[in-house]
Specification:
By secondary structure, this protein is of the alpha/beta class. It has one domain: 3-Layer(aba) Sandwich (Rossmann fold). It has 6 helices and 8 strands; from the N terminus they run H-E-E-H-H-E-H-E-E-E-H-E-E-H. Strand 1 and strand 2 form a beta hairpin. Helix 3 crosses helix 4. About 40% of the residues are buried.
Length: about 200
């Protein structure tokens, strides 16, 4: 599919132009370590780039007629809003629950049977997306697809609904006790402006 290939190249160019690809020694949200990091907020701080990538997700799922878009905090808020705007539907945001998982707060509701598109910024282990999907299902919604800005698993994230990523990359990751970068004594790095040595 030439059009999709071109769009994916445009997505990679957008991430590269934003300086979102970082190299070093990082701790991912999952707790695993790796040498590559995708700083999603370099994209999300750019309205033009965010709008263009959100359009890719909206067009991919428009045929499935989503009635609502749901995204997890934090980066998923911006993406859910923009994808929903382009689809002409509403967005809801799910937050971390006190006992784990994701929950709806701030008066958000999902009417039973609503066709929901789940979106997120970056997939590393798929945990955030799975929690969002579970929250939507528990509320009575029907998840019809999952769209993300970037898939760091090179397509290995398992889903039971149609899945689309604007950008797919393969970032090897390791448990801390088997990390070759730790073994080599390479210090942990932090993305530009994060103010942290360890990304959590």
């Amino acid at each position: 599919m030439p059009e999709r290939t071109s769009a994916r190249l445009d997505a990679r160019q957008a991430f590269e132009a934003a300086g979102a690809f970082l190299r070093g020694h990082f701790v991912y949200t999952s707790g695993r370590h790796g040498a590559d990091y995708l700083e999603k907020f370099r994209i999300l701080e750019d309205p033009k780039a965010t709008s263009a990538l959100a359009a890719m997700i909206a067009e991919e799922f428009r045929r499935l007629t989503p009635e609502l878009v749901a995204g997890p905090t934090t980066g998923g808020i911006i993406l859910a809003y923009e994808v929903a705007r382009q689809l002409g539907v509403n967005a809801v945001y799910v937050e971390r629950g006190e006992s784990g998982g994701r929950v709806l707060r701030r008066g958000f509701e999902i009417p039973p049977g609503t066709r929901v598109l789940v979106v997120d910024d970056v997939v590393t282990t798929g945990g955030s997306v799975a929690e969002t999907e579970a929250c939507v299902t528990d509320a009575g919604g029907v998840v019809i697809g999952i769209g993300v800005l970037a898939d760091r698993t090179a397509g290995r994230a398992a889903t039971n609904v149609p899945f689309f990523a604007c950008l797919t990359v393969d970032f090897p990751s390791y448990p801390p006790d088997a990390c070759p970068h730790c073994a080599a004594g390479i210090p942990l790095a932090a993305p530009r402006g994060s103010g942290k040595k360890v990304l959590a």
